[in-house]
């Protein structure tokens, strides 16, 4: 099967998370998910799998994902964003969908395409754009942390740092 240059986070540990996106134009959004998984040391792979331009590849990716040892898939797409839902149809793995902002409808089309799944085939759908990509990865981390105490400690520390940053925020009126 031909895929567009998969990128493994490392040559050794097998990827636990697949990050896929419909186009390289989704990268600036989806790199937020990459950054989070990298920060938490979770092995991942990242690649373009287009539902519409690479349908056979998408079917093969979804069909093989669980058997290859992946624990979750983060799928981002924009416009007629069918990739997350079709992957969810092809695998029992949890699929985390990220609506990528689109040129004409600002990602509202992406959001509705991803979130309105039929009963029985869920996609956990996140916010449009960067926050959604980062939160999808954080949700994967939270799920893995349920059975990984070291990862749970890392997640607690991440949240504590975030709280401190918020507490240290100063408004111009008080500066
Ligand atoms: C979707 O179409 C992709 O996920 C992307 O968000 C959008 C536009 O793709 P390009 O035309 O920029 O490749 O399939």
Task: Describe the protein's architecture and organization.
With 175 residues, the protein is an alpha/beta fold. Helix content is 42%, strand content 17%. It has six helices and six strands; from the N terminus they run ββαβαβαβαβαα. The termini are far apart. The mean pLDDT is 94. It binds 5-O-phosphono-beta-D-ribofuranose (RP5). Residues 21-23, 25-26, 50, 52, 77-79, 100 line the site of 5-O-phosphono-beta-D-ribofuranose. 5-O-phosphono-beta-D-ribofuranose binds at residues 21-23, 25-26, 50, 52, 77-79, 100.
Topology summary:
Blueprint: E1 4-8, E2 17-21, H1 27-39, E3 44-48, H2 55-64, E4 72-78, H3 83-90, E5 95-100, H4 108-115, E6 124-125, H5 130-145, H6 149-167
Parallel strand pairs: 2-3, 2-4, 4-5, 5-6
Antiparallel strand pairs: 1-3
The structure holds 5-O-phosphono-beta-D-ribofuranose.
GO biological process, one term: 'de novo' IMP biosynthetic process
Function: Catalyzes the conversion of N5-carboxyaminoimidazole ribonucleotide (N5-CAIR) to 4-carboxy-5-aminoimidazole ribonucleotide (CAIR).
InterPro entries: PurE_ClassI (IPR033747), PurE_dom (IPR000031), PurE_prokaryotes (IPR024694)
């Amino acid at each position: 099967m031909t895929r567009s240059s998969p990128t493994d986070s490392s040559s050794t540990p097998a990827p636990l998370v697949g990050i896929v996106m419909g186009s390289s134009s989704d990268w600036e959004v989806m790199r937020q998910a990459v950054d989070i998984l990298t920060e938490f040391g979770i092995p991942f792979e990242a690649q373009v799998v287009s539902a519409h331009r690479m349908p056979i590849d998408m079917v093969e990716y979804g069909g093989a994902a669980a058997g290859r040892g992946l624990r979750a898939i983060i799928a981002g797409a924009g416009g007629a964003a069918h990739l997350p839902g079709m992957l969810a149809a092809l695998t029992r793995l949890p699929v985390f969908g990220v609506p990528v902002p689109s040129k004409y409808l600002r990602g509202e089309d992406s959001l509705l395409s991803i979130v309105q799944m039929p009963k029985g085939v869920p996609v956990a759908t996140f916010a449009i754009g960067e926050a959604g990509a980062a939160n999808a990865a954080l949700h994967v981390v939270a799920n893995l942390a349920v059975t990984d105490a070291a990862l749970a400690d890392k997640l607690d520390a991440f949240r504590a740092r975030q709280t401190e940053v918020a507490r240290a925020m100063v408004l111009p009126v008080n500066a």
